[in-house]
Every structure is written in structure tokens, then in C-alpha cells.
Amino acid sequence: MTVVGFLRALTLAAAAASLGALILMVFRTFSFGHREYLSAPRGYGGRGLVYAFGRGMLDKESVSRHRPTMAGGALYHMAIFAGLAYVLWMALPLRISPSLWAFRPLLLAGAIVGLSLFIKRTAKSHLRRLSCPDDFFANLFVDGFLSMALLHTFIPALEPVLLGFSVLLFVYIPLGKIRHCFFFFYTRIVFGLHFGRRGALPGSGREA
Amino acid sequence: MENLTSKRDPYEEKLDNLTDADIAKILAELRRRLKAPEIAAAHTCIRCGLCADACHYYLTNGELEDLPAYKLNLVLGVIKHHFTPVGRLAGRWVGGKKLDKVLVREWVDVLFGRCSGCGRCTVNCTSGINIHGLIRAARGALAAAGLVPPELQSTVMMAVEQGNNMGIPRDEWLETLAWIEEELQAETGDPGARIPVDAKGARLLYTVNPREPKFFPLSLLAAAKLFYAAGESWTFSSDHYDVTNYGLYSGDDAYAGLLSERLAKAREGLGAEVLVLGECGHGFASTRWEAPEWLNKRFPFPVQSILEVAAGYVREGRIRLDPSKNKKPLTLHDPCNLVRLGGIVEEQRYLLKRAVTDFREMTPNRQKNYCCGGGGGQLSMTRYAKRRLAAGRIKADQIRKTEAEVVVAPCHNCIDQLSELNREYKLGTQVRTVIEVVADALVLPQKPAAPLP
Predict the structure, then answer these.
(1) Is the ipTM of this complex over 0.85?
(2) B88 vs chain A: nearest CA distance in angstroms?
């Protein structure tokens, strides 16, 4: 087996291990039990869910007062998913070449936005003091990954470096803050159901 | 020096002399309260800090400790360190925090002293983490070690031991009701108008904030007029009428459950169909939403806000309102526990639009309203009063911008805070409850309406 072949296999193994670890974390989290709602509902949990993943994603001050950060954050996440897809595409024994024109702008934008978020976290006193080392490290780690993926689209010889980087990233995902990508959805579901059944979210209750 | 030492606040001394056993109690109680959503929150919060603008404390004071994400991570850090493998493994690298004496002191100052539990951060959190719920869980953990600020704890204990949080003796309560009954008769011109007490088989059991008999008896009169005009079959309980529940604020589920259960038992004893909660935001959230979970049982009867009941009367044509009786420009404050966290959003608007001629919304309003600062037990915790009044500036500015002459709130805690803000920020407004305004607009029946069977 060639070095690249070995690294491709290792990348896939790391990705699978990362996914497995995240799934284990979810099971462990669920082992704490779920809250049983015993009060009579006044609204509709389902409508709360629709709000939580629909209008409620944008209808808040954390969005309206921070449009550049939120837009940047959305772009950053899209770029990360694109980067991961790019690496897995490369590591899997597929004979289709990814369309570089689709990846390059996204990876470039993601790397720039990621770096801007790092600068923001470092420069703003309260945000810096709120942060733990993982916040800075995970941010830079992902920025490095996106930059490496972008470079690889121009210089295919960098494949072993990109694959090595990817292995480390996959190993780090369940250990650091990147794991929020899994738990975000659960937290949002709980939010929608909890307040939806109270009729406390717009459109979730009986209106007078 | 000895004298100075002996005069130290015993609460501060207790915080200084915490033992490992105290820390263990806090952790055990925190662990008991953890369910999947709380653990998930520890994995979800990315400390983006975008919740900052949601908090009236942060917006007015601007200290790091006021930032909701900071408050949240004081709790999540402990959860991570003590209850998650990643937190145990990576510790401070991932924001894990070992609970020790210094951190307990910070918990007390920040979680009790810089949060009114309004939940505005929760709905503005990019991930939807129940920030105020986690803060309450941590307050409850502190309560297990006897570390609730004494002014708040004494309010809880007053209600537990005396039956109401103002310590009003039963005779005084009954005398007040007798006096209000005379006022009702005078206002309605009907010598048969009654304020029923312990009336078996009445349809509604009505509960109030003890501040009403103590300081605002006209609120009692307003509700009595409303029921009279609707021909309602209702009653007060002579013993358990206190809708407030400071256990919600102290975080102590056992006491909170006890206080709500008393109301449920009073309803059962009198055979009333519906438990009606007076104008009290946290009282509504407590008994309507939280109590079944505190008590681990479903209530086999409806629990309603007086606003729902009154709006029902208007819809059913049981009462008539004349808005020309309330001509002053009026604005509405949305109590957080009733509206954002309780779901009673439109009823008060439905009533006010029919009871006044010039109703003006604050901006923002409804679920997005700013807290007045009176929740979270802040009104009782005098040690944090300066912060509370400073944090109320946002609400004062909102009121001023409406140029209203009257501000109404369906919550007596909010009324107290709004009255203080009125003085502090020289707003020059009248502060009233929704039902008081509705009662002023009532067109009383020529003949008394017959009570429902």
C-alpha cells in the first residue's frame, strides 16, 4: 500500500471513529433521561419545532444585530461541510473528480471568515475572556484545514498533508467544540417543543 | 476587630466557611437535576456571545459577568468538569470548571445577583439553549446547601410557614375581604354583591398576590367587580390564596412544589372546577407550567390566568366594556414569566383594545419584551437592589418612548418594579394592573347577573 493509500484509509477510519464517538456521546447524553412534560399543553409542540428551525432561526436579536457575524457563521459552516465532503470524496475510492470551481470559492471564503471570527474572538475583550483554549484552537484548526483543502485544489501533491490534517481534525471533533454540530439539532428540537407546547413561540399557541 | 467580625453578614460568613460536604451537596443536587437537554447544552454552547444584547443587565451594566453566555458557562463548566468524560479529560481546555469555594461565591453573585430569570437570552440563543433554566438549576443546587440569599429564602419560608409570602394573618385577610365586599356593594349599588370565601362548589377558585390585600386592595375590588359583572360562580380560599411562588426563584423544587400543591388542594377541598391564577407572572409560570413536574403528577383540572378568564367573558358576551371610561394613553408591559415563558400573549391585548381608547405598544413587545428587572427574586434580594434599578433603565426608556400616561402590567411583581422605575427615572406614569383597567371600563348590569349554577 502506498503512503497516500494508507492515509486515505486512515482518513476514512478517523472519520468513522469520529462519527462513532459522536454517536456514543449522544447515547450517553440521552442516558441522563428526557424531561416528561406533565402540564397540560396550551400550544402545539409541532408548531414550536417549525418555528425553531424556521422563522426562529432568524427572528432574534442575535441575528438582527449581528448580521455580518451570522452571515459569516453560516458561510463558515457551509465551507466546513464542503471541506469535509471534499476530503471524503478524495479518500473514498471514487473515480469522480470533484468540481473544483464549486469548492474553491467556498473554501476560500470559509478560511477568510474563520480567520475573521478568530480575530474577533481575540480582539473583543469580553469575548476573549469568555473563551476557553478550545475556542481559539478549534477555530484555527478548522481554518488550517480549509486552507489546506483550498491549496490542494491547486497543488494535488499536497494530498498527504491534507489527509494527515484531516485525520487529526476527525480525531479532534468529538473532543472539542466542533461536536456542537451534532448537539445543536437536539437542543433546538427541545427548545421548539418546550416553548411550543406552552404557546409561547410566535404562531405556536391559540391566539385570543 | 472582634466587634467588626461578629457583625459580619452570617450569609457571607457561611460562604467563606464552605466545607467539602457543602460542595458535595451542591454537586449532588445539580446532578439530580441534569437531564439530556442540560448535558447537550454543555456540548452545544460555543460561547459566541451573541446573547449579549438580549440581557438587560448586560445592556445597562456591560460587565462580563452580566453576559448570559458567561453566566451559562459558570454552570456548564461545572457540568462538564464533574459530569462529562470530555470535561474530566480535557478540563480547562474545553471550559471545564471544578466547583470550589471561590466558584460557589461567584455562582451566588452572578446567578442570583445578575439574573432575573426572564429567559430573553434563551429565545435569543443561536442554539436555543435553555439558559435561564440552567441558571435556575444551579440556584436549586445552591439551595440544597442552604446558600440562597437570606432575603429571598425568608420570603420562601414566610410563604411556607405562614401560608402567604407577606405573613398576613387569616383574620386580617378575611377583614380585608369584608371591607372590599362593602366597597363592591357601594360600587355596584347592589347590597347583595358578595366576595365569596370558602364557597363549596364554586366554579372558580381565585388566587392573588398577597401584596393585593396588603397594599393594593383595589386590585381585589377590580377582580370582584369583574366576576360580579360576569355573574361568575367563584370563591377565595380563606387559607390558601397566595398565587406567588418564590420557590421558582430560589430554585428549591420541594418548597416550590409545596406552595403550588396547596393551591391545588384548596381547589380540591372546595370542589372548584378551575384554579384561576391572579395577575402574577411567576405565579402563573410556577403553577401552570412547572408545578406538575415539581410534584411529578398531572393536574386533573384546568389552571388558567385571570386574563384568559376575562378575555373569555368578553368573547362570550358575559361582560361589556366601554373604552371611553379609560381615555388616557396607556401602554402594556409584558411580564416575562407570563408571556415569553408562559404563552399568555394576546389575551391582555384583546382586553385592553376593548377597554381603553389609546393603547400603545412598547417596542419591542410580546415575546421580545425586555424584562422590567423585578423577576428572579430580585425584588426581595435587597443586596442587589442597585443593580436591579440600573437594569430597569431599558424598560424605563421603553415606557418613556410610548409617551403613555398609564403603564399596565398583569403582574404585581412587575408593578412593584415599575413603580420603583417610575420614581427612579421620573417617568410620571400611573402604574396599574390589566384587570384594574378592565374593571374601570366595565358596563355593570342594570340588574345583577345571576351566578352560574
Answers:
(1) yes
(2) 11
